[in-house]
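Renewal narrative, Specific Aim 1. Our central claim is that a sequence can be written position by position from structural information alone. The example that follows is taken directly from our test logs and has not been curated for this report. It begins with the structure tokens describing the chain, in the order in which they were read.
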């Protein structure tokens, strides 16, 4: 039987690691959204006075391979990263990290939008959606008149 020296910080480190894992799985990368495969697309959502702007990083995909839909306040971006065909020269793959496969990202929009006037631009692997806000949700100013 051996004697193990008591280290008061050994359990604290384990608790810290457990808390980091909990926050990462719950908030940063919710269950079902793996961080390393082709099923996840990073987005930025911004709101201006008149528009909701969504930027999605989809490098290596063609614009015609992306489907965008808005249902109520849910935005869905779907697409597929196509795997490059391997050359028949007998080369062995040593490492393959480029994504391939389909992806789908659904998120809530901060307000109602007008889909008929929406614009989608694609440049250098960045998809930019400009979704105009519905008129009834835009802020309105009321001027006060003195008597």
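The sequence written for that structure reads:
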């Amino acid at each position: 039987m051996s004697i193990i020296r008591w280290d008061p910080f050994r359990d604290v480190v384990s608790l810290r690691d457990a808390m980091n894992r909990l926050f990462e799985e719950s908030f940063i990368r919710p269950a079902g959204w793996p961080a390393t495969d082709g099923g996840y697309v990073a987005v930025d959502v911004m709101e201006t006075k008149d528009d909701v702007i969504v930027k999605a990083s989809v490098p290596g995909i063609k614009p015609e391979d992306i489907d965008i839909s808005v249902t109520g306040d849910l935005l869905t971006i779907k697409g597929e990263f196509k795997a490059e065909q391997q050359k028949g020269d007998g080369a062995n793959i040593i490492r393959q990290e480029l994504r391939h496969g389909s992806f789908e990202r659904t998120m809530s929009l901060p307000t109602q939008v007008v889909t008929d006037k929406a614009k989608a631009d694609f440049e250098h692997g960045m998809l930019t959606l400009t979704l105009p806000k519905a008129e009834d949700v835009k802020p309105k100013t009321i001027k006060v008149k003195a008597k």
